[in-house]
Structures are given as C-alpha cells and as structure tokens.
C-alpha cells in the first residue's frame, strides 16, 4: 500500500481577518508546498479526519468519533456547501475493518459537516467534491472527550484497514493546534444556548451571520492584544509537531484532556485529528515528515501548522 499524510490547520477567519502580508506569504508558500505534495502523491482515496463546531454533531448524541458513508457540508463562514464526494464503498470497508479491530466506531449514513471538513478539501483539491473521500469526525470541542489513546487506536485501526484496500491513500488532518476561539460550552450555558447545543436546530441565516460575526470580531480583538482567550502556545505546538515528526505517537497517550486545554485552550483538542492521521500513516509502515510549517496567527485564532509526510 502507498500512503501519505497531510496535516493542515483550518480557520474560518482566513480571508476575513488576515495577518500581515509577510505572514500570509509564508502560509501561502507552505500551503502551495502541501498542494504540490498532494498533486505528486496523486491519492485515489482521502481519509479526512476533522472536528465539527456544532453544525453536525450535538449533545443529544455526541460520539467521540464517527465515520461517514455520505456527507453534506453546511457552508458555514463562506465554505463550500453541498455533498462531499464520499467513496461509500471504501467508507463501509473501513468502518467494518475498524470495528473488526475492536474500536467501537459510530457510523453516519448522512453526516453533516462544516468548515472543518470543507476547508482542507477546498484548499488542497479545489472543492469538496473533487476526490474520493472518507470523512471521519473526531470530536475536538465538546467535552467530555475520550482519552487520546482511543484516538490513536482509531487512527491505527483505520490505517490497518486502509492497507487492505490496496489504494493510494492520503490521511488528511484538519485542525488548529493551540487555540481558544469562542466556541460555545454546554456547562454553564444559558438555557437557550444549552438547548441549541443539545438539540442542534439549524440556525436561521440571520442567527448564523450574527454568530459568525462574533467570531470575526473575537479574532480582531485577539490580534489587537485581547487576553480574553487562552494564548496560542508555540512551544506546546512545536512539541506536538516534534512527536509527529519523530513518530513518537505513544507520547500522546499521557496527554490528558485537562492538561491539553490548559496548555492550548478549549479547541486545542482539534490536534486529535492530527494524531489520528499520523497514527493511520504509522500503521502502514515507517514514514518521513517531508515538510513542516508553523506560525502562531492570532488574527485567525490559530496555532497554524502545515505538515506533509510520506510512507517509506
Ligand atoms: O466558531 C466556529 O465555528 C469556529 C471557529 C474557529 C476559529 C478559529 C480556529 C478554528 O479552528 C475554529 O474552528
Ligand atoms: Fe476549528
């Protein structure tokens, strides 16, 4: 089997609240490199690990992770809306393979996804419907969260199951590293917000626009020096990237939910998508990280990273 991995941070503030031109140019170069890596690797299947931000998954039933055999994007923050080009046959085979390996996977026959899934597909492939994909939701926001060991087990099982498919598989992770955007929290939420987080009633266009504007303003205030959010933590982010680069994935087993939130903020758990993708690649054999980019970008509320890795 031929396998590769790409990790790519997302932010809905890209293009709406941009950093200085020199930062933007460095990000653009790193993303162009990842795009070229993907073009040269030429995957015929992408397993996409990404979180959700209360657009598809709600507290009525909140799985720690879930694989989709069909998926539709809501088009939040200007991301592309509509069906993803899910490879249903591959998705079903991977789901069975993961369950057979003892990981209690949830399966969705119609997953709703947001910018977490849409953005990397748009950035790397030019759209959400361009490449056969198996979407795998990894809860990175809604506590309680499972231990990171289970995410590594999920990634390993997916990687082993993918190896049996005899395809050119790209494991793609979507997530910021340390970051603490104003994503709502159930505990202590006023009844109207709690109800929305539990039931998941679709917002009206006006409600969605107001919510998105709040995030844009939070990004502007953060970039201007507001201390309302947990600071981006470049040392922690680079420690994560070091472990991924060296293949030291068992190091993550001791990373607790509480410690991760303290070091990296409430959405630092999005690194679970990265851990899953690299565990999948590692399950197919040894790998080399072929490129690595990192920058703290407060305007995007993101410890922002781009990395590529190739199986040997
Ligand atoms: O409000 C949301 O839906 C998400 C906001 C956000 C902001 C910055 C970085 C991210 O990864 C986000 O998901
Ligand atoms: Fe996010």
Automatic annotation (TrEMBL):
Pathway: Aromatic compound metabolism; 3-phenylpropanoate degradation. Keywords: Aromatic hydrocarbons catabolism, Dioxygenase, Iron, Oxidoreductase. It catalyses: (2E)-3-(2,3-dihydroxyphenyl)prop-2-enoate + O2 = (2Z,4E,7E)-2-hydroxy-6-oxonona-2,4,7-trienedioate + H(+); 3-(2,3-dihydroxyphenyl)propanoate + O2 = (2Z,4E)-2-hydroxy-6-oxonona-2,4-dienedioate + H(+). Pfam families: LigB. InterPro entries: DHPP/DHXA_dioxygenase (IPR023789), Xdiol_dOase_suB (IPR004183). Residues 5-304 form the Extradiol ring-cleavage dioxygenase class III enzyme subunit B domain. Its cofactor is Fe(2+). It is an enzyme of class 1 (oxidoreductase). CDD domains: MhpB_like. GO terms for molecular function: 3-carboxyethylcatechol 2,3-dioxygenase activity. The active site is at 115 (proton donor), 179 (proton acceptor). NCBIfam families: PRK13370.1-4. Homotetramer. This is 2,3-dihydroxyphenylpropionate/2,3-dihydroxicinnamic acid 1,2-dioxygenase. It comes from Streptomyces ossamyceticus. The gene is mhpB.
């Amino acid at each position: 089997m031929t396998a590769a991995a790409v990790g790519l941070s997302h932010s809905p503030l890209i293009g709406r609240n941009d950093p200085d031109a020199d930062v933007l140019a460095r990000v653009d170069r790193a993303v162009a490199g990842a795009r070229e890596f993907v073009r040269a690797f030429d995957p015929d299947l992408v397993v996409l690990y990404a979180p959700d931000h209360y657009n598809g998954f709600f507290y009525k039933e909140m799985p720690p992770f879930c694989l989709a055999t069909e998926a539709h994007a809501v088009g939040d923050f200007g991301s592309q809306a509509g069906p993803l080009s899910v490879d249903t046959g591959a998705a079903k085979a991977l789901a069975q393979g993961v369950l057979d390996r003892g990981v209690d996977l949830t399966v969705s026959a119609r997953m709703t996804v947001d910018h977490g899934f849409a953005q990397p597909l748009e950035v790397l492939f030019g759209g959400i419907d361009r490449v056969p994909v198996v979407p795998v939701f990894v809860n990175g926001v809604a506590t309680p969260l499972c231990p990171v060991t289970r995410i590594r087990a999920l990634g390993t099982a997916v990687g082993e199951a993918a190896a049996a498919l005899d395809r050119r598989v790209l494991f793609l992770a979507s997530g910021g590293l340390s970051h603490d955007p104003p994503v709502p929290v159930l505990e202590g939420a006023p009844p109207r917000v709690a109800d929305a987080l539990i039931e998941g009633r679709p917002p009206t266009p006006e409600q969605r626009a107001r919510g998105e504007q709040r995030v844009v303003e939070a990004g502007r205030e953060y970039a201007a020096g507001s201390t309302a959010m947990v600071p981006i933590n470049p040392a922690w982010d680079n420690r994560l990237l070091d472990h991924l680069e060296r293949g030291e994935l068992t190091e993550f087993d001791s990373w607790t939910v509480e410690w991760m939130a303290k070091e990296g903020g409430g959405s630092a758990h999005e690194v679970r998508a990265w851990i899953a993708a690299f565990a999948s690649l590692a399950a197919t054999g040894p790998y080399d990280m072929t490129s690595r980019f990192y920058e703290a970008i407060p305007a995007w509320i993101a410890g922002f990273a781009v990395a590529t890795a190739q199986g040997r």
